[in-house]
Amino acid sequence: MSYPVVRTTNLRKSFGSHEVLCGIDLEIHQGEVVCVIGPSGSGKSTLLRCINQLETPTSGQVELLGVTVTDPDVDIDRVRRHVGMVFQSFNLFTHKTVLQNLTLAQIQVLGRSKAEAEKVALMNLAQVGLQDRSEARPDQLSGGQQQRVAIARALSMDPQLMLFDEPTSSLDPELVGDVLTVMRDLAQAGMTMMVVTHEMAFAREVGDRVIFMDQGLVVEQGPAAQVISAPETARAKTFLHRVLHPTEMDDSELGQTEPLDPKLDHDEWSASHPDQTSK
Ligand SMILES: Nc1ncnc2c1ncn2[C@@H]1O[C@H](COP(=O)(O)OP(=O)(O)OP(=O)(O)O)[C@@H](O)[C@H]1O
Ligand SMILES: [Mg+2]
């Protein structure tokens, strides 16, 4: 493929007078794993949604798999069927079995036979470690299992690009690992992926590139290890410090100007917990 899988050019999106994307230029190439990080409200979800035209950009261009999807004449459904999207909420059909969830679009959109669709579905269920749950209904599965079903459903459409919007944010902490493992395997198999995530360890390990967004702009981007471990801009530094050290408050939040004396802290704690302090 000689063209980028995704290319946006001066992409802008406003809701009313609020400009949420303020001119985004980016390219994602085949096989690349790009993680998008940034504060809440910075426009990460809107960017993903504009890329596959779930939102119509206000101006600018989006090319997807070599097709300029912002052209009004484009048959967006023909392009979108090659793009898998996984959301924070799994969006499974609750009254259908796992297998039916995976075969429905294959039959209706790709025109596969039921037998063929089931074969593909079972293969993808095996890939996410759920081959024995094909007859379960989503509400009989854990959140992590449901998210893996959602990934298997997207994979069953043979996507050329996978977009993930905080796929693990709604999961209990102990279920996050299985979903990230599936995504890591997918990346290693060469899938082109754009992942909005707060999982910095995942972004550092699996991401080829990290994009840091703030207030509708790409403020910083580069190799994952560099952006996460040695950010250059003050905004990225502040954000990453907050994410990587969530329990640490800075002086202004504590309402004092002097750093805490750790010894004082310990003495205060000992005084209020006499039974737990070794004498
Ligand atoms: N449909 C909409 N109508 C009006 N405003 C919207 C709409 N969708 C998003 N916004 C606004 O656009 C801004 C960016 O939202 P977006 O969901 O893209 O942020 P985000 O970076 O994904 O945040 P989070 O990390 O919380 O998911 C926010 O201020 C949000 O309120
Ligand atoms: Mg979001």
Largest beta-sheet characterization = 6 strands, mixed
Task: Look at the helices and sheets and give the structural class.
Answer: alpha/beta
User: How many beta-strand runs?
Assistant: 10
Low-confidence stretches: 256-266
Tally of individual helices: 11
Strand content: 15-25%
Morphology call: globular
> Which cofactor or ligand species appear?
adenosine-5'-triphosphate, magnesium ion
Report the end-to-end length measured between terminal Cα atoms. 70 Å
Helix content: 25-40%
Main sheet strand line-up = 6-7-8-3-9-10
Order of helices and strands: EEEHEEHEHHHEHEHEEHHHH
Question: Overview of this structure, please?
Answer:
With 279 residues, this protein is of the alpha/beta class. Helices cover 38% and strands 22% of the residues. It is built from 11 helices and 10 strands. It has helices at residues 44-51, 76-80, 98-108, 114-127, 143-155, 173-188, 200-206, 224-229, 234-244, 251-254, 262-272, and strands at 6-15, 18-28, 33-37, 59-64, 67-68, 83-86, 161-165, 193-196, 209-214, 217-223. The strands form 2 sheets. It has a 6-stranded mixed sheet, sandwiched between helices. A 4-stranded antiparallel sheet has the order 2-1-4-5, with helices on one face. A hairpin with a 2-residue loop joins strand 9 and strand 10 (217-223). Helix 5 packs parallel to helix 6 (173-188). The protein starts with 5 loop residues before the first strand and ends in a 7-residue tail after the last helix. The chain binds adenosine-5'-triphosphate and magnesium ion.
